[in-house]
Amino acid sequence: MITKSTGKTSIEEPSETTLQDVPAIDDIAAAAAALREKLVDTQTPGYQAEFDPEEAERAGAFFEEALTEADAEGSSDDLAAALAEL
Length: 86
Fold this sequence. Notes:
- By secondary structure, the chain is mainly α.
- The protein has one domain (10-85).
- Helix content is 49%, strand content 9%.
- The protein has helices at residues 16-21, 27-41, 53-58, 69-74, 77-85, and strands at residues 2-5, 8-11.
- A two-stranded antiparallel sheet has the order 1-2.
- The longest helix is centred in the middle third of the chain and has 15 residues, at 27-41.
- The chain is elongated, with a radius of gyration of 28 Å.
- The protein starts with a strand and ends with a helix.
- The model has no long low-confidence stretch (mean pLDDT 77).
């Protein structure tokens, strides 16, 4: 609250009742709203929205479908044979 007295502006501390009237910030809802805004921004051609790792995971950006290590090693077998033919 700002009051004006004798031509000078001073800042008063809010009263207890004023502080009780302020709703608490819901961090989860705020984070979800920010994520929705970023996802809408991704639809703008040429705009590169930046996501932190937690936001990217919540948006489903990292659905893991990678090969196992054994599958990855086995996939190079045909490459060795093709190179030997050259």
